[in-house]
Amino acid sequence: MGLTFDALEIGAVHVTPRRTIIDADIMQFAGLTADYNPLHTDDVFAAATPFGGRVAHGPMLVGMAFGLASRAGLFDGTVLALLDIAWTFSGAVRPGDTVHVRVTVSDKRATSKPDRGIVDFALDIVNQRDEVVQRGKAKIMMSRPPQD
């Protein structure tokens, strides 16, 4: 079970498990989204780009960031709604790269309903060289246990 609104401390940093991006991840994401851009799916085409090879879809890593945060015990069963996200893509992720996410609780506020609260998170996707390749902010409605 994930953390509830009351268990999240402003300023706390949670580090997720790592995950290596493999070719199958990229191809499955291409199939799921119908995004067959040759930058992601064609070795010959991608080799001639400034990246020098295929790269993962940026939005694929956004989804993985939330999945890794769930694996870290933050979100499973306690997230009620994703209310807003903003994302910046600053580096390529290639097949064979290993990423993890640093999730920081940046703010939180109670709502008028006692069973929920709003939490602002900052998420940094970090590769195996400790480079931040994507950075995001998310506003999430989290459950609160009943108050006595």
Give a description of the structure.
The chain is an alpha+beta fold and 148 residues long. It has a single domain, classed as Hotdog Thioesterase (Thiol Ester Dehydrase, Chain A, Roll). Strands 1, 2, 3, 4, 5 and 6 form a 6-stranded antiparallel beta sheet that branches. Strand 5 and strand 6 form a beta hairpin. It is elongated, with a radius of gyration of 17 Å.
Q: Topology of this structure?
A:
Layout (H helix, E strand, L loop, with lengths): L12 E3 L3 E2 L2 H11 L4 H4 L1 H5 L10 H14 L7 E11 L8 E13 L5 E11 L5 E12 L5
Antiparallel strand pairs: 1-4, 2-4, 3-6, 4-5, 5-6
The unreliable regions are none
| Share of helix, binned | 10-25%
- CATH H level, superfamily name: Hotdog Thioesterase
Number of β-strand runs: 6
Shape call: elongated
Which assembly state applies to the chains in this document? single chain
CATH topology group: Thiol Ester Dehydrase, Chain A
Structural class: alpha+beta
CATH architecture: Roll
CATH class value: Alpha Beta
Sheet with the most strands? 6 strands, antiparallel
> Strand-and-helix sequence, N→C?
EEHHHHEEEE
Question: How far is the first residue's CA from the last residue's CA?
Answer: 21 Å
How much is the average pLDDT? 96
Beta-strand fraction estimate = 35-45%
Radius of gyration in whole Å, from Cα?
A: 17 Å
- Number of H/I helices: 4
- Number of domain units: 1
